[in-house]
## 1
Amino acid sequence: MNRNKTRFLLMTLVAVVTFGMDSLPALAKDSRIIEFSRDTPGAEAKAFSSLIGVWHVDRDGARTVYAVDGKNWVQGIMAPAVVEKAKSLYGHGASEFLRNLEKYRYFPLTVLKEVKDFKEGTIEVMFKPVSGRIDQAAGIAFNIKPNGDYLVIRANAQEENLVFFKLDQGRRSTVQWINKVPVPSNRWQTLKVVVTGRKIEGYLNGTKYVDYLWTEDIDGRIGLWSKADSYVFFDKVSVTTK
């Protein structure tokens, strides 16, 4: 092999390796899975900060889970120590956050502490609707803003539908509503939200039902959501960010 050919091959190899290294940060993802096996039944989950409704660690047979407990539901219950929790999430902006959040008291909400600014990626959770005369709703809340506004995609076993809601300035409005979606009670299922740029997708048990191009960039906290007297188990919350 002559010297020029050897030099060309070496330069090509260096270019390939350099390109691969330069592309790694763009491909890297931060993934985490939150389970509740080390939490104490009856207490709040360590990874979450409940703000509206009754949330506690529960048991499903031998499985330790996180539950929204609406069995003794009363409209408008804020979670214990909600002021302190809001301050830990939003600091000096907590008063505005709480003032607007109280307008959504009908909808239990708990926020994942460690993810402060979910912009793009995947949020997935396993859930099991247990009971509820009015509702049996399980949702993923995202784009939770310091002023208390947020987005949510939720499944409801009572209504057998999947809905994409916007909660904005104290009002809830529908973005997409999909009827005739199988959401069986007393069965573990998977709800997933995928955000790519401004594109929002919602999946239930592997089937995509929501596909929507949002009007602005997604950037906010994330959490779990429910409604009214729902008693629902949650487990294995998976978050992957790009």
Note: Helices lie at 3-27, 82-90, 94-101.
## 2
Amino acid sequence: MISAVQQYRQKQNLERRQRFAKIRAVLDQVEDLINITGYFPIGKSVYALLNTRAKELLVSMNEVMPSDALKDRISEYETRLKGLDLNDTSLISEDFELPQNDKQIIAMINALKRLRSALRSEHAKGRVDTQVYNLEDQRLQKLQLKISVETLIKRGENAYNSNMLGSARQYYEKALRTIDEHTYSDDYTQQRHEKIKASLEQITSELRDANSNDARKRKSDELEELFQPKKKW
């Protein structure tokens, strides 16, 4: 009987630890997103939502395995949330700097995808007002588009400056397709669309001139070879 009770308690402890670890993993992801929000011009409502979610997870962890450390962290989040509003869509910051290397760009795009996924999940649970959700999701989507387009334009400019016209054209065409694949249109997409089209026209013109020059040079070389004195053997 004593052995059975011990086994039962061990099973309960194991289940508690497993549940605690599962909640902890989700909390780590949410807190990582909280840290990420400072790098993007997104609404305060997203920041408030993530902090609310983090506090709820801490409460769940404390219910599974209570501790003073968890209670202190819950209090910290409660204090922070007093100054936040889930319906405040004003921007946390308007500053944004395009990453300099491919790894940073990929990390930033993945972070935006995770933020959109978290926002979509909370909206599905009824924790986010639909109007707020639509506004914030569109902001994240536009930001994701901007990073992709600006990166492709930058690569196109670098290829053009290196006289790699074929590669430059491919980058610009991909940037144009990226814009066209989105259903919405605003000042940014229109301006970038015009800029890319102008760059492609310039490249097409230069490639045409280069091909014409090559053709003339080949013809001249052929004529020169034709009228060269014949060698006597």
Note: The helical segments are 2-36, 44-64, 68-81, 102-124, 130-161, 165-180, 187-226.
